[in-house]
Amino acid sequence: MQEEDRLDLELHRRIAAGDREAFDELYRRYSGAAYGLALRVTAQDTIAQEVVQDAFLALWRAPEAYDPSRGAFRSFFLSLVHHRAVDAVRREQRLRNRTERASNLEPLRGEDVAEDVVEGAYLAVRRKEVRSALETLPPEQRQVLELAYFGGKTQVQIAEELRIPVGTVKTRTLAAMRKLRRALYRED
Amino acid sequence: MSQDHERIEELLAGYVLLSLSGEDAIEADRLLSEHVPTCPMCRETLAGFQAVVGELPVAAAPAIVPDLVLPRIHRGMADTPAHVRRGVSRIAVAASVAALVGMAGFSVSLSGRASKAEEQRGRALAVLSAMRQPGASPVSLPSQSGSSGGLVEVSGPTLERMYVYGDDVPNPAPGHEYQLWLGSGGTFQPIGDTFRPEDGIVLLELTVDTTRFDEIWITEELAGSHPSVPSADGTHSWRSALAA
């Protein structure tokens, strides 16, 4: 276990005991990444703020939802943010007409929109690794993966948007996930 | 790899990305409750895909959170009574966790064993707190059989869980237990374990993606029968459309 993961675990333990300072520290560590993710999925700052707010409050109200035996806190919490952001996208009618900013590839190619966001250096390191892994995917596979994950779209919606059969979306998604898994975990 | 497993992996990949809908989502849920827990290859695949999805969030560019967000969170924390945190914690500790816990969108924890009055009160307060959350949508479940007990389902976009609470709920017929089902387009699937009221009290706590479903149904089933479709001929049942 890495030192940063150990620190997260300790902060989580203190939050479970009602320690508000620990909560603020965890907020400092992950609010930038959480907000960036929520913004990317919802493409609306007010909705993204609500998503981040709800996710942190959920953590405060039910810290036991995180089970350390199931992986890093970082993955748990940001997945919670992602899930809520996707829920928001699908629930909010007005978001159906949102711009394509949420799901295009541009943000991954350019500089971060907020380079001075306060967060742990390890997050920036991991970001580069994950983006490098994404870069290894063929464009058509990366496109369906990003439309699904960062666009919050269903496979049927992706097929309609790209005007390709749903079966092709499924095939590309599976291929992308397999390649990404190999790239991230150096599997042969 | 068999053709079936190729198809299952396709579903698992779409599942962890939250991108399944319609029949695919229903099939994935069925696989996750029936096949995956017994198939080492599928469990390993699912765990690998979940790990990948767990890393994807950091690919998004971070952004500066507006200053007003943290004070709003602090106000929300101040509005969270200590007993709610303790109550939720007790529920979790008591929960019997299904084999799928942790799977995005379909992790289920179930607690229907309120054994002490104090715990029952704490859990009821947790439900009441959930009802007050923004966007919470309490739905009364009318009895299909004229039973006296009242049941309420609470879920909402800002809630992490779905609750079903009831009091004065009659015991099921001898040899039977209650089963909760969620349905989509008239097709239902069982959620969690079967349960019985204790002193007339029922409290179910589920983490489940309710957006996939449009109906909730609680039926009386033969204990240990593991039915795949709801029985419509039980003595007691409650059924309602879920809030949109």
Offer a concise description of the structure.
The complex is a heterodimer of chains A (188) and B (244). Chain A is mainly α and 188 residues long. Chain A has helices at 3-16, 20-42, 45-61, 73-91, 106-109, 121-135, 139-149, 155-162, 166-185.
Record the SSE blueprint:
The complex is a heterodimer of chains A (188) and B (244).
Chain A: H1 3-16, H2 20-42, H3 45-61, H4 73-91, H5 106-109, H6 121-135, H7 139-149, H8 155-162, H9 166-185
Helix pairs in contact in A: 1-2, 2-3, 2-4, 3-4, 6-9, 7-9, 8-9
Chain B: H1 3-16, H2 22-34, H3 40-55, H4 69-78, H5 82-94, E1 96-97, E2 109-110, H6 117-132, E3 137-141, E4 150-155, E5 162-167, E6 176-184, E7 187-195, E8 202-206, E9 215-222, E10 238-241
Antiparallel strand pairs in B: 1-2, 3-4, 4-5, 5-8, 6-7, 6-9, 9-10
Q: Tell how many strands the DSSP assignment of chain A holds.
A: 0
Shape of chain A: globular
Please work out how many helical segments of chain B DSSP would assign.
6
Mean of the pLDDT scores of chain B? 74
Distance between the termini of chain B: 40 Å
Walk me through what this model shows.
The complex is a heterodimer of chains A (188) and B (244). Chain A is mainly α. Chain A contains 9 helices and no strands. With 244 residues, chain B is an alpha+beta fold. Helix content of chain B is 34%, strand content 23%. Chain B has a 4-stranded antiparallel β-sheet with strand order 3-4-5-8, covered by helices on one side. Chain B has a 4-stranded antiparallel β-sheet with strand order 7-6-9-10. In chain B, β4 and β5 form a beta hairpin. In chain B, α1 packs across α2, α1 runs parallel beside α3 and α5 crosses α6. The longest helix of chain B is centred in the N-terminal third of the chain and has 16 residues. Chain B is flat. Classes of the chains: A mainly alpha (188), B alpha+beta (244). Chains A and B meet through α2, α3, α4, α6 and α7 of A and α1, α3, α4 and α5 of B.
